[in-house]
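> call design_seq(struct)
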C-alpha cells in the first residue's frame, strides 16, 4: 500500500466533510497527534484503526484502497502532471511535488521539494532511509546534533529515524530532490499501537 496516497485521500475526504483532526480523532477513539502523523504520511494505520476513521468520514475502505495495489511496470510523470503535497502544516511551508504518484504501490517515494527561506520547522524523524540531492540554492541539513551545509550538486544519504530537517541559507529558496525508502515495509500493528500510546 502506498502510504503517501492513502494519507492524502484521508485528508482530502476529511476536509470535504468539513471536519477537523480533533473531531475525527475523538469520534474514532484515537488521538489527534496520531491522526496527524497518518495524514502527514509518517506512519501507516492498522486496518482496525483505518476502519474506525473511514466510518467517521462515511467512506468505505474499498474507496480508500481503490487503485493503491496497482503496480504497473513503468510509469512516466510529466512535469505538468506532478501532484503537490503539503506536510506538517501550518508549521512547515515546504512544497512536496511527487515524482512517482502514478505508481501507487512502490517501495521508494521521490519528491521535488521547494524549501522557502522562512521555513523553520523542528527536526522530526521518520521510518526508513532518505536520499537528498540539492538542485539549486544553498541548503543546510540539520541531522541529530550536527549540521551540514549543502550546495547545488551535493548529496547525502541517511537514516531517517534520526531527527532531521532541511532549511535554506543565504536568503534564497532551495530546490531539493528527495527519495524516501521505508526499508521495513509497512508499519506493523504493534508499531502503530505504540504510536497511539505515546500520543494518547
Amino acid at each position: 500500500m502506498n502510504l503517501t496516497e492513502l494519507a492524502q485521500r484521508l485528508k482530502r475526504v476529511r476536509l470535504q466533510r468539513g471536519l477537523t483532526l480533533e473531531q475525527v480523532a475523538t469520534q474514532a477513539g484515537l488521538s489527534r497527534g496520531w491522526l496527524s502523523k497518518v495524514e502527514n504520511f509518517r506512519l501507516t494505520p492498522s486496518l482496525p484503526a483505518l476502519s474506525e476513521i473511514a466510518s467517521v468520514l462515511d467512506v468505505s475502505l474499498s474507496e480508500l484502497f481503490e487503485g493503491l495495489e496497482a503496480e504497473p511496470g513503468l510509469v512516466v510523470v510529466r512535469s505538468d502532471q506532478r501532484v503537490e503535497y503539503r506536510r506538517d502544516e501550518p508549521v512547515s511551508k515546504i512544497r512536496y511535488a511527487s515524482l512517482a504518484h502514478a505508481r501507487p504501490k512502490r517501495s521508494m517515494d521521490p519528491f521535488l521539494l521547494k524549501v522557502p527561506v522562512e521555513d523553520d520547522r523542528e527536526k522530526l524523524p521518520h521510518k526508513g532511509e532518505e536520499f537528498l540531492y540539492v538542485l539549486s540554492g544553498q541548503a543546510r541539513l540539520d541531522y541529530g546534533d550536527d549540521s551540514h551545509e549543502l550546495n547545488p550538486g551535493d548529496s547525502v544519504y541517511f537514516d531517517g529515524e534520526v531527527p532531521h530537517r532541511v532549511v535554506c541559507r543565504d536568503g534564497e529558496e532551495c530546490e531539493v530532490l528527495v527519495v524516501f525508502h521505508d526499508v521495513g515495509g509497512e508499519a506493523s500493528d504493534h508499531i502503530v499501537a505504540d504510536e497511539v500510546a505515546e500520543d494518547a
